Amino acid sequence: MRESTLVLRNYGIRDRKESRDLSAVEPIERRDPDAQDIPAIMRALGVRARAAALELAKASSARKDAALRTAAAAIRSGEAKILAANARDLAEAKSADFTPAFADRLTLD
Question: Once rounded to an integer, what is the mean pLDDT over residues 23-38?
Answer without folding.
Answer: 57
